[in-house]
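sry for the spam today, last one i promise. struct tokens for design, 137 residues
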């Protein structure tokens, strides 16, 4: 197969794949566990960094992680518009933030008792969780 035929075949394959991915049934973005769990973990780390004076959010790692979630959603066939709407509009954002608050409470954080957020954050760092990886002393 000559070079121009290979390029044409590759282009046809890429076009067919892209069209298939776009037309393929996919669950709503809020039902993709890798995306939602990543956003929930990020929200927990952010809240700990906000409430605990001795821990901070690792901003560059947080941004890099959020960009990786966006890239994963794009690979799964979601458009930039779908992703932006998902992370910035009402019900889904509120739902994920609610889950993050519930998980923080389950981990031992008590609203108004900010040292409990520090305790949770330090435990996450010590355990090497994704939440802990987004925090720094």
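last one done:
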């Amino acid at each position: 197969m000559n070079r121009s035929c290979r390029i044409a075949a590759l282009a046809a394959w890429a076009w067919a794949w892209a069209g298939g991915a776009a037309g393929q049934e996919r669950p709503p973005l809020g039902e993709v566990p890798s995306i939602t769990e990543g956003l929930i973990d990020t929200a927990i780390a952010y809240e700990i960094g906000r409430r605990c004076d001795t821990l901070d959010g690792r901003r560059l790692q947080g941004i890099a992680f959020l960009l990786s979630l966006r890239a994963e959603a794009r690979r799964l066939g979601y458009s930039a518009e779908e992703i932006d709407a998902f992370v910035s509009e009402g019900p889904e954002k509120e739902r994920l933030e609610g889950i993050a608050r519930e998980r923080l409470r389950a981990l031992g954080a008590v609203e108004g008792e900010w040292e409990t957020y520090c305790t949770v954050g330090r435990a996450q760092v010590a355990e090497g969780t994704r939440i802990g990886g987004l925090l720094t002393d």
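The first strand starts at residue 56 and ends at 57. ok im logging off now
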